[in-house]
Amino acid sequence: MKKTFLLFSLIIISLFTHAQTLDSKLLQELRQSFIKDSRDVAIQNVLTGDANLTKNAKSRENVGKTDHYFKYRVDVKGITNQYSSGRCWMFTSLNVLRPEAREILQTDAFGFSHNYLYFWDMLEKSNLFLENIIGTAHKDMDDREVTVFFSSPVSDGGVWNLFYNLAEKYGVVPEQAMPESEHSKNTRQMASILNERLRAGGYTLREMAAKGVREKELRAEKNIVLKDIYRVLTLCLGEPPTTFSYRYKNRQGEIVTLQTTPLEFYKSLIKSDYTPQDYIMIMNDPTREYYRVYEIKNYRNTLEGINWIYLNLPNDQIKQAALASIKDNEPMYASCDVGKQMDRETGILDVDNYDYESLLGINLAMDKKTRILTRQSGSAHAMLLMACDTDENDVPVKWEFENSWGPASGNKGYLTFTDKWFDEYMFRFVIHKKYLTPEAIKALSAKPVLLPVWDYMF
């Protein structure tokens, strides 16, 4: 083993010793490789005068081939809007619960407050960051874990387990109880201020720890920082209610008034089995072994909450489970690389929407595994998976998302994606385990493989 490692090291050293610069010979070779024929002249004329590569690469042969009709569709109504924020995971998680909530409340005019959970998410993430800084104070500032923490103390991104942690601790409220603010709709500036305060506070904690300050005093300093964070959040978002009165008209035309707490309200709306033991996050990640459970270290928002844990499955198993869930009228949290091959005008995602290779005369071929490992692709956006269309043999041909970009986006707020696109760009799902195969359920009992905080799926 040592000999193999030594040989590998020598090869790498040799490669860098003979590294090639952009010398005149290579530059000449590159110039000669571009033979400008009449086709290239035409393309150059177009592209130098139009910066929109996507528009020019649109495949006309593919236009009109995919419609928005579905054989199986969950009963959902109403499109939400996350505006300029990264709260898609929160919107999707609440959109999963919304159809059931409307049935329980017997009203179609119900929506959740996203601002309420956003407040608690940012406060909890701030506390977790500061605790992580205290816990790693003995490590060097350039330690990889410390670097990850300071690179992004808090953000509004996340996955389903973050929603679960918040809802179980703080509950949920109707939209009227804590409406959106301008800073919940446009999060960049507030988040920047929070991160600046947290980085300064985190550095102070490290300096205090290096001087041997006791844990009690470190916690006191941490709490000073948290009070500043709470102040900024309250000024920008409003203060979350501890109790609220919700007045609405039900489907029978009756005026109903609820006097309750956020946690009581949440418990009244969810099923008894709405837990991570029954609702499982599954993933298609071809870079890792299938039928294994993985856990990403420290990927949570509350200190006491659960990390991001997922079962890795092949796509055919995921599709089978997802179709069963849709047929059972149960929508799913799902996430994908939404920007790839997306036609924003039609709301259609298909692997043949855009042909950059023919336009530019280059080779862009990569499989899903390669795209993940090279960071070319990864899960970027969460949406509600709620429809599937199948062929005469009941095999999926296309699927549908309920998005959270407002009704003007895509197909009246919805996005249709082909089954081929599913294979390449779908990643995460949260689904009831009753839709999984016995083999998948058995795999859930294994101890998770722990992945580091800098994992590429983070």
Give a written overview of the molecule:
The protein is built from 17 helices and 14 strands. Strands 1, 4, 5, 6, 7, 8, 9, 10, 11, 12, 13 and 14 form a twelve-stranded mixed β-sheet that branches. 36% of the residues are buried. The radius of gyration is 25 Å and the shape is globular. It has 458 residues and is of the alpha+beta class. The model has no long low-confidence stretch (mean pLDDT 95). The protein has two domains: 112-268, Alpha-Beta Complex (Cathepsin B, Chain A); 273-451, Cysteine proteinases (Cathepsin B, Chain A). The chain has helices at residues 2-17, 24-33, 38-48, 53-57, 88-105, 114-135, 144-151, 160-170, 182-185, 188-210, 215-237, 262-269, 315-327, 356-360, 368-373, 419-425, 438-443, and strands at 72-73, 244-249, 255-260, 279-283, 292-296, 308-312, 332-336, 342-343, 348-349, 381-390, 396-402, 414-418, 426-432, 449-451. The longest helix has 23 residues, at 188-210.
What structural class is derived from the secondary structure elements? Answer: alpha+beta
- Rg over CA atoms, rounded to whole Å, is 25 Å
Number of domains: 2
Count helical runs.
17
Q: Unreliable runs, pLDDT <50, ≥5 residues?
A: none
Return the average pLDDT rounded to an integer.
95
What's the level 1 CATH class of the largest domain?
Alpha Beta
CATH topology of the largest domain: Cathepsin B, Chain A
What's the count of strands? 14
Helix content: 40-55%
Largest sheet, in brief, is: 12 strands, mixed
CATH architecture classification of the largest domain:
Alpha-Beta Complex
> Based on CA inertia axes, which overall geometry fits?
globular
Distance between the termini: 31 Å
